[in-house]
Every structure is written in structure tokens, then in C-alpha cells.
Amino acid sequence: xxxxxxxxxxxxxxxxxxxxxxxxxxxxxxxxxxxxxxxxxxxxxxxxxxxxxxxxxxxxxxxxxxxxxxxxxxxxxxxxxxxxxxxxxxxxxxxxxxxxxxxxxxxxxxxxxxxxxxxxxxxxxxxxxxxxxxxxxxxxxxxxxxxxxxxxxxxxxxxxxxxxxxxxxxxxxxxxxxxxxxxxxxxxxxxxxxxxxxxxxxxxxxxxxxxxxxxxxxxxxxxxxxxxxxxxxxxxxxxxxxxxxxxxxxxxxxxxxxxxxxxxxxxxxxxxxxxxxxxxxxxxxxxxxxxxxxxxxxxxxxxxxxxxxxxxxxxxxxxxxxxxxxxxxxxxxxxxxxxxxxxxxxxxxxxxxxxxxxxxx
Length: 361
Known about the structure:
Layout: E1 15-16, H1 27-43, H2 45-50, H3 54-66, E2 73-76, H4 79-88, E3 95-99, H5 104-111, E4 116-120, H6 126-137, E5 141-145, H7 157-166, E6 171-175, E7 194-198, E8 210-214, H8 243-246, H9 254-270, H10 272-292, H11 298-301, E9 309-312, H12 316-324, E10 327-328, E11 330-332, E12 335-339, H13 346-360
Parallel strand pairs: 1-10, 3-4, 3-5, 5-6, 6-7
Antiparallel strand pairs: 2-8, 7-8, 9-12, 11-12
Helix pairs in contact: 1-9, 3-9, 4-5
Keywords: Lyase, Pyridoxal phosphate
Pfam family, one: Aminotran_5
GO molecular function: lyase activity
């Protein structure tokens, strides 16, 4: 795993614990983007002709990677872009279940529309809270982040399968931006009906790209009005009024969208199972270390499993101290958010703990 740190030059300069904010750009993806720009510079319209199959190739790479259907994968510049199209395809007064304090790019667009909105609390009893809210309010749609951006609390994917079995008409829509790229995931076998994600974080695909995976029945509940010349052009979009075409009304940046495939190829080269193993190992080690120093909220401590994203107790002064020591992290939710990906090491966790202890002396 250490050999692949060479793909990410930033790791040689800093202790980079900020993938939850921005994932590192690999040399493979950087080289791909550079080559794309050079080809465009020297080929102009011929470049576009040569890239006619690119979107299909990216869909196929995602379909293989996440066990989804290529003809039900939409490509967008960001999660928010696609999510707003999705919401505009829902009927007014649709009853939507949200999580209190979920990522603003989820809750704000829902709250800005004429939906009937209900909420469940995010805490150590997350799944039970959701179950009770569904039983009480009978929502038509449940929208949530797979991993919470402030606390790092990760929803139980087995719970979602059970929820879907018990409420088959409930449309379950997940934001995987803080999740996709951290472990193996089988979309077809999951309880999620629609999964969207920006790919610049844990997939390390750079900015300007995202994707949405759909199951068959999702098209029966969403009717986006968005349409353009690009909506019915290209492989997998030739059926008139195809759902994924509604998410792609115009041109997409081939360099940005193509980076998704390059990022997937790198993860496959490393081994997704190895990435998952490393991320989980770092998560367990960090959680134990933070618990000993009483740096975690009870909601996180009392969860059986957790993501590799943590919000630790810490003042502005501690944040500045860590930053000055070369630790790249973020301030979120009144604390300091640190996140560990496969290019991080156990030694970096130990260095972070030592710095925190030294600051406290």
C-alpha cells in the first residue's frame, strides 16, 4: 500500500487527513487530464469526434465497479447538479424523510421546494430513529448521506436492505460522496434505489464529475423536465425520454468525466478489497486512540462500526497548532474533522495523537 503513496505527492509533504473535504489527485488522473487538454489543443473538433464513446466507457466502468446497469447511470458535473434535477422530477407535496443536520447539499434543495418534509435524528440510534420515522410518517422518499459529513456516522447498509424489504414502495436515495471509494459496494444487491456521488473525494477523481446509479423502478417515480440536445445522443441514451438523458441535457467536460474511469482503474489496480481493509484498519485504530483521549462524542463512541471520518474535540488553537505542524484537516461542527483514506498510515495516526498530547501539556 505504501508504494501507492507515490501516486499522491501531497503525502510526502503533509499529514493529509482531509479527504472528507477534498480527495487527493493521483498522478494517473493528473496525467490523463493533461493528455486530454493537449489533445484538445492540437485536435480541436477532431478531439470531440475521437471521444464519442467516452461517456459510454465511463458508464461501463462504473457499472462493473459498483454492479449496476450502464444504461441506468447518469453522469453530471456534481452531485448537487444531478440532485436538483432529480428533485424537480418529483411531484409537489411529495412526503420526504430527511436527517436533521445532514449535508446542506441534500437538505437545502429539498427544503427549498414544496415538499412535505419530516425528519429523523442523527445519533447513536440512527437506524432506529429512521425506522420509527418511516413507521410514523409513511414518507414516499427517504434521502440521506451514507456517511455523515460532520460526525462520520455511517448508516448500516444491511438496515437499508431490511427497510426496503419492509417498505418496497419507499424510494431510498443515498448520497455516497463521503462513501464511494472506501469499500466494495454492490448496488444491485443494496437497499438503495438511487445512489449519487461527487467523485472528487474518496474516489480521487478530481473536480467536475459525479454520477447517479438508478434501479429499474426509479424511472417510474421521477419525471425530470430537463432536456437538451445531449439528452438522447450517445450509447445508452437513444431511447426517447430516457431517464439518464434528462440528467445530461448538454455537453459534459470529457476530461473531468473521463477522470472517473481513470480513478476507478487505479483503485482496481491497487485492489478494492485492500483499500477497504486499509481504511477499516485505520478507522479502528483511530477510534480507539481518540476514545482514550475522550475526543469523541458519545454518539460515535457507542456505535459498533464507524467510517474513517472523525470529528474530534478541539479548539481553534489546536486546529492552528496542527495546521502549523503540517496536519491538513478541517473545522466542522464545533470540532476538528480528520479523515483517513488508504494512502494514510498507522504511523500518521500515532503522530497526530502525539501532537494532540503535546499541545495539551
